[in-house]
Write a structure and sequence with these properties.
- With 521 residues, this protein is an alpha+beta fold.
- It has 16 helices and 21 strands.
- The strands form six sheets. Strands 11, 12, 13, 14, 15, 16 and 17 form a seven-stranded mixed sheet that branches.
- The radius of gyration is 23 Å and the shape is globular.
Length: 521
Amino acid sequence: MGILAVLVLAGCGPKNFGGDAHSATAGVLREALSTSLTTLDPAIVQDPDTNAVLGDVYEGLVTYDATNQIAGLLAKSWTATEGGKVWTFKLRPEAKFHNGRSVTADDVKWSFERACNPKLNSPNAPNYLCDIVGANDMMAGKAAAISGIRVLDPLTVEFTLDKPRAYFLKKLNSTCACIIPKEAGLDRINDVKQVIGTGPFLITRYVPEDRVELDANKNYYLGAPNLKRIVWPIVKDSSTRLNLYRTGALDTLTVDRQDVPAVQRDPKLAPQLSLEARPQIFYIGFNETNVAALKNRRVRRAIAMAIDRERICNVILGGVTPAQGFIAPGVTGYVEGYKGLPYSPEDARKELAAAGFPGGRGLPTLQLTFRTQTPDSQRVCEAVANNLRQNLNVNVQLAEKEWSAYLDARNKRKLESYFLWWGADYLDPQNFLSILLASSSPHNYDSYFNAEFDRQCEIGDTTPDEAVRAKAYATADDIAVQDAARVPIFFQKEAVLVSPRLKNLQTNLFGQMQHVKVSAE
C-alpha cells in the first residue's frame, strides 16, 4: 500500500495515530475500539467495548478460565453452605491494588455497597447484586449497608443470599462485582486518575474519540504481564479498521461479516482468520411500554414469522448460526435442534389479521433503531424492514443512534423497536432469561410479562438441581419465543484476525482473556 493511502487511513482513525501505536513495537499490543468508552466505572459499564478494556484493569473475586470454568481471581477459595444460601470467600493475601495497598475483606464489602449506593445509581446492581440479603434495601435508600455481607476477618468475607442461587458464583464474573479500594470514593469514576484496580494493567491515557492506553502493572500479584503496553485506538469505521490491520497497524481485529469473504480470499490474511462462537444473542426488541400495537402478542408473532432469519444469517451475514431460542450455544440449558417460530409469511399474515390489522392496515409505521457505525447491524435491519414491507405490508422506518445515546434511550424505554445483542456475563441460562425478560427484572426494558414464564424462571433460579433448572429454563425459553417477547435472529460467530506477532493469546467463549501471558514480538 502506498504512502498516500496510509496517510489517508490514518486520517480516518485516531488523531495522533503514530509512534508505537502505528508501528509494530516489541511488547506493545494494538487493538482497535469501535467507539469511545462509555465509562471508567466498573459498576456502571454496560457495553462490550468498555468491558474489553476494563477487564484488564479491574478484577472480581472469580473469573472464567480457558476451559470456561469458574476460577479464583482475588479469591483463592470459597465454600457454599446452607444449600447454597451462604457463600464464604478467602482472599489471596498477596493481592494488591494499583496504589500498592493490600486488598481486604473490608474492600470487598465496601465495593458491593458502593455499587448498591443510590448515589451512584448503578444500572447493573439491581440485577447482579440483588440476591444478597439487604442489597435491595440499600439500593432503595432504606439501609446504609448490606446486611447480607459480613467481614469475618481481614481476608474472609461472607455473603448470605435471599434464597439458594445456583448461578451466584458465576454472577460474580460480572463487572459490577469488581473490587476497588475505599479511597476510590462514591462518585462515578470518569477520570484516569481515579481508576484504581487490581488487574494486570493500569489505564495511563484516555482521549475520547482518539485512544486508550494501558501500561503493564509490574507489581501484579499473579506475575507481571509479558506485554509492556496495550494501545486501543478508537476507529469507528469498519473499513478503516480492516485496512489498518492489513497495513500492520493493528495486531488483532474482529472483522465485520460483510468483510469476511474478502479476508478469506486474501492469501496473507486468510491463515490469520478464525471463526469463534460467542455466547451472544442478536435480536429484535419490542417496546411494549409506549407502542400499543406491540403489546398485542399476535402482532409480535406476525413480525417474528415474517422475518427470514435463514437468509439473514446465511446470505447477508455469510454463515452465522440462526437463533431459534434465546439461550446461546455453550450455555447450560441450550437445546440443540430446538425449533421456534418458523419463517411463514402466510401464517404471519393470518396472525396480523387476527390482531385487527388485516393486510397491515391500521398498523402505524414502526421505527427500528440500530447502532451507528455498525454495517452488519444496518444490513440486518434493512433486511428485516424489507421482510416486513413485503410480507406484511408494514412500514418500517430505520433510525441509527450513537452508542452512548442508544444505551441511554434503551434504558429509558424510548426506543420503539431495536436491533441489539446480549453477550453473556456468565454461562448460565438465568443470564439470558430471568435477567432480560422476567417481569421483576430491571433489565426488562420491553415490559414483557407472562406469569408462567416468571414461574419457570423462579424454579430455575432457586433450585440447586441442574436437571430441574435445565427443564424449567427450556420451558421458559419456549414461552418467550412463542410469545415473541423478542425476535431471536442469530448467535454470534466472530470472525477474528490475529497477527502472527502475537504469542500465547488466551481466549475462552467470551473472547480474549486478561492479557497476562500474551507477548508481542
